[in-house]
Specification:
By secondary structure, the protein is mainly beta. Helix content is 8%, strand content 24%.
């Protein structure tokens, strides 16, 4: 399965601030309350962590949700 990786630029991942279908792959280095339980994931170098999708996001989705593609 091919994954596409993105980092949120201005806020931590949440169900209402990202396109549907995301998966957290690195927990935020700035730890909001929701992520201290995710000790199974590595701490990201990025303040708001890293997420992955099984599809490539469109340019409009990346711009609207303020994401940056990684890799």
């Amino acid at each position: 399965m091919i994954l596409f990786f993105y980092i949120p630029l201005y806020r931590p991942p949440s169900w209402n601030c990202l396109p549907k279908g995301w998966e957290l792959v690195e927990r935020p280095s700035f730890t909001p309350n929701n992520y201290e339980r995710r000790t199974d994931l590595p701490v990201s170098l990025y303040p708001y962590g890293m997420i992955a999708y099984s599809r490539e996001l469109t340019a409009a989705e990346i711009d609207t949700y303020q994401l940056r593609r990684v890799g």
